[in-house]
Specification:
Elements lengths: L1 H19 L8 E2 L2 H10 L2 H7 L3 E2 L1 H17 L4 E6 L5 E5 L7 H15 L1 H10 L4 H17 L20 H11 L8
Helix pairs in contact: 4-5, 7-8
């Protein structure tokens, strides 16, 4: 009996933990119907297969990123770096041509991107965008930081009222970007 109780307890705890996990890579984010129709009308068969069910999962997004990278590498443009950045978005660098072959590199990028990632990447960024409340909180923190740096900042700054012309902007932007998980946040 104690063994049966322990197994039942483990099963209940496991189910609870699994259900409370919001970072499940197989959990899909619903695609607004108008976005879905727009994507289905312009995208490749590869990307259509990922979104035709009306949801986009992290695994599907990741599949698009990795397929794009594979396409570029097969064409002779190796991956330099790949990391999962803020808001579950991949940041990558692919080694491309400097002068000679630049047009060829652009053409290959365009083809690989159009086939594997263009719409999926945009959609993933859209589905993981910050809420207005998150943006307002970050803007307030940026304003506070800029004031600490000696900048003259409006009491309740709106979009476009904070920027690189202000003393300490780069330091504050980096700090707020990290704290609020908003890469390159500028107000």
């Amino acid at each position: 009996m104690p063994t049966r109780f322990v197994l039942a307890f483990i099963a209940v705890v496991s189910a609870f933990l699994w259900s409370s996990c919001s970072d499940d890579p197989n959990e899909g984010k619903p695609i607004p119907p108008q976005e879905l129709q727009a994507i289905l009308s312009v995208t490749s068969d590869f990307q259509k297969a990922l979104v035709v069910d009306g949801v986009l999962t992290f695994v599907e997004y990741e599949s698009g990123v990795l397929s794009y990278i594979d396409c570029m590498e097969k064409a002779g443009f190796p991956l330099e770096s790949l990391e999962l950045g803020a808001r579950q978005q991949y940041v990558y660098t692919i080694h491309g041509p400097r002068d000679e072959g630049l047009e060829r590199g652009r053409a290959i990028h365009d083809q690989c991107h159009r086939t594997y990632l263009r719409e999926i990447g945009r959609l993933w960024a859209f589905l993981n965008r910050p809420t207005e409340a998150e943006v307002q909180a970050a803007r307030g923190a940026l304003a506070d930081c800029l004031r600490e740096q000696g900048a003259e900042v409006p009491v309740d700054p709106g979009p476009g009222e904070l920027g690189p012309w202000m003393p300490g902007f780069e330091i504050c932007s980096q700090k707020v970007s990290t704290e609020y998980d908003l890469p390159g946040f500028g107000g």
